[in-house]
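User: two proteins, same treatment. go.

Assistant:
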Amino acid sequence: MGITGGIASGKSVVAGTLRGMGFHVIDADALGHTLMEPGTRAYGEILTEFGADIAGADGRIDRVKLGAMVFAIALGLIGVVTKALGGILGAREMGRWGSVGVGFGMVPRGEVGIVVANLALATGVVDASLFAVMLVAVVITTVVAPYLLTWVIPRVEAEEAAAQAA
């Protein structure tokens, strides 16, 4: 049986009750924390992927910092996908590759993200760490756009040439 739920939904209470009834309880959070201890394979891989700064003064993985970095990357990827998909769907009449080109062209809207993030920070809606996460997401969407456009532009041109030849 698995126990799932949001923060403060009583998962630990239910697990404790089951443990008290003699059930064997596996705590996935505790296992994950153990796997990230210094000297483990996962510890080394996390340091390799996220940099030595991800470790705190005690040498252990700073899970808050790691979570913020993972969240920033995920937010950036979601931003790329949703912006591209919105542009693609909105420009369907431009043909397959033309709409993809519009979608990819919509990805780098970093200036809007920076303005919104800055306003949120200035008004206290977000703190400095969440502001940093938002900036990473903006950078991801801005950096990936030229690569996407370099890939799609030849396809758009070929599609247009084929349409003119027909």
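Protein 2:
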Amino acid sequence: MRVTRAAVVTSASNPTVRLGSDGFYEAKLMAAELAQHLEDSELSHRLREEAHQLKHRFAVAIAAALLGLAGCATSGGNTFFDDAATTMRVKKAIFNEPSLKVAEITVQTYKSAVQLSGFVGSNADIYTAGSLARSVKGVESVQNDLRLK
């Protein structure tokens, strides 16, 4: 493209071309390409900025949700998480007892009430499992439904 005696004056809002006596068509094309380039560049910049802001907002929302869940689980405000933690503590206590490792014991917790069910080898194992469950933090009551094999 050759433009003689033409000057291109650009601004972000209004690219213009000042022409001499010839080269009007080429200058018009050049101005259109320049305007398109400026629009694409500005649009690209705005899209990148909006994507960055969206990522930031998403990260803040996730952090707030996680903090809210952690607060509920530790403050006693959410029985689902409290019961799940209690169930895991009771299972751990039973598993750590050598005489009960091979026993088939199911532990369920609802509103801090623990239910033990399954099969064990002796009456002593039934008593031991119940005692362990009662000693775990967060357990308010134990329903011992264990049976002998």
